[in-house]
Amino acid sequence: MSKQVPIAEGLFTWPAARPALLASRCRHCGIASFPAAESCMACSGQDVAIEELPGRGTLWTWTIQQFMPKTPYKSNETAQTVRPYGVGYVELPGGLRVEGRLTENDPQKLHIGMPMEVVFEPYRTEDNGDEVISFFFKPVN
User: Fold this and answer.
1) Which class for 40: exposed (0-12), middle (13-18), buried (19 or more C-beta within 10 A)?
2) pLDDT at position 16, please?
3) Which of 34, 128, 129, 137 gets the most CB atoms within 10 Å of its CB?
4) pLDDT of 61-111, one tens digit each?
5) How far is CA 48 from CA 12, 38, 44, 83, 102, in A?
6) What's phi and psi for 108, nearest 5 deg?
7) Short-list 97, 104, 115, 85, CA closest to 21
8) Is the model's pLDDT at 37 over the cut of 90?
9) For residues 116 and 56, is the Cβ–Cβ distance under 8 A?
10) DSSP characters for 88-131?
C-alpha cells in the first residue's frame, strides 16, 4: 500500500492538517535557521527551539533552471524529460529567507516582491509507489 512521505524528516510538519516549514531559533541570540539545526549558525549556541514558520512571504529573488540538476538530486525526471522550473528565495516575516522550488516557471509571471505562499505537493513517486511530498512556493493570487 502506497503512502505519502516527506522528502526529509524534520523539514516540515507531516502529516498535518496544515503543514508548516520547521526552523530552529536560538534562545540566546534569537536568530532563526531553515532548515532546522541543532546549533545556532550565528553564535554557535546549542540552545535552540523548533518552531513553525509562517506560510506566506515575499519573493526576494528567483531564477528559472532549465537543466537537470546533478546528483544527489532525485526525481522521476530524466535529462530528456526535465522541464524548466522556478527556484527562488522567499523572505518570511522576521527576515528569514528560505530557498525553494517555485510552482511558477514563466518569467513573465514572477517579480521580486510578489506575495508567495508555501504549498506541500507530491514531488516524485518512489519505486514502491510512495508519493514523496515536498514544499514549493506558489504566487498568491
Assistant:
1) buried
2) 94
3) 137
4) 999 999 888 877 888 888 888 899 999 999 999 899 999 999 999 999 999
5) 17, 7, 10, 39, 29
6) -70, -15
7) 97
8) yes
9) yes
10) EEEEPTTS-EEEEEBS---GGG--TT-EEEEEEEEEEE-TTSPE
